[in-house]
Amino acid sequence: MTSTYQPGTSVLHRAGAGVKLAGLLVFSTLLVALKSPATVLVGFVLVAGLYVIAGFGVRTLGEQAWPLRWFVLFLIPFQWWTAGWQVAVVVVGTLVVAVEGAALVSLTTRVSDLLDTITALLEPARVIGVDPDRVALLLALTIRAVPVIAATLHEARDARRARGLERSTRALVTPVVVRTIRHADRVGEALAARGMDD
Amino acid sequence: MIQIEGVSQRYGDREVLSDINLSLDEDRIGVIGANGSGKSTLVRLLNGLVVPTTGRVLVDGLDTARDGARVRRKVAFVFSDPDAQIVMPTVAEDVAFSLRRHGLSKPEVADRVRDILDRFGLGDHPDHPAHLLSSGQKQLLALASVLVTEPEILICDEPTTLLDLRHSRQVAGVLEGLAQRVVLVTHDLALLRGWARVLVIEHGRVVADGSAEASIGHYEALMARQPC
User: Fold this and answer.
1) ipTM of the complex as predicted
2) Which of A1, A2, A5, A112 to mutate to test the interface with B (most CBs of B within 10 A)?
3) pTM, two decimal places
4) Cα torsion at B204, B207, B213, B214 (round to 10°)?
5) pLDDT > 70 in chain A, percent
């Protein structure tokens, strides 16, 4: 969801965001409900096939699961030890395959299309005071904040090193928090200037 | 026509602007002054981002305090830090985001986005992640994102501060060619050469108001008199 959209013309790129989200929901629900190693295997083959159809290779497939590596390395022995190898395969496999499926939706769908879908889905909630546009804006800002905060963290780490304070947590956390709050303040002002609060 | 009538602005005990009276009608208006002089506050008054403590600001007869939403549709604002203005992950999406509440169809939005990205030299990067653009391209994107709504007036608060010389000139060229009326706050005095009117702000007051040459000369003399 952090701007991983890869432009393309495949059938998955052309499919509506709502269809893809619904498909992801059904797929993930079946994975969790059926909970067997065979289901995980079938699910993985299906997702891998969809990556190929969308024009992505094995590398992209691997990149989506890579952030889970430490979690998986901890979870496999823990589940094996407490519940047996089959449960370990099902739990870890379900998690990885579901993340791969969700990443495929992100890779083939513009964030704006996802937000339009979410806005449409939330439209009935207006009667209980929910403003779908505000929810969409909140999601957009959350997604946008990830690279900004990552860059802030990177710069603060460099600044800490330049001052010879590599081991100081305060020298890292303080500027990141201050700059993040200041950034949030500026974003709020810019949004107000663009009439988003009117 | 922008009219500033008897405006003072206070933040707590600190008076940032004192009894400002101006009528702004020129196509190109520059605002210069030392850091903390009140120039950013002055321009924030013009689209209702800041509501005056006393006095009033009228944009084509609309009071910024009472008709803020309508004023902001006429008056767009660009800040010095483009990262704070870019909301969406990709270039085209950020421009399109400005049109979300304009009641346009998807093809209309796509056409307007394509047109403005082409105008600003970003037409080849519609799906490029916005955070990976260069600083200059980000500022051009910020400009495109506010100008796609076709405002009548554009206010820029130090839009070239974070840019290198090449990108600074690129943004200056874009500002020069705009059909909109532009109010520009800047420390880059070269940007204002030939502009119709330049205001010099000092300690919350307008201390010079005239042609670019006259006002810049006044400002440079003022700065030369101040101790470092």
Assistant:
1) 0.77
2) A112
3) 0.81
4) 180
5) 98
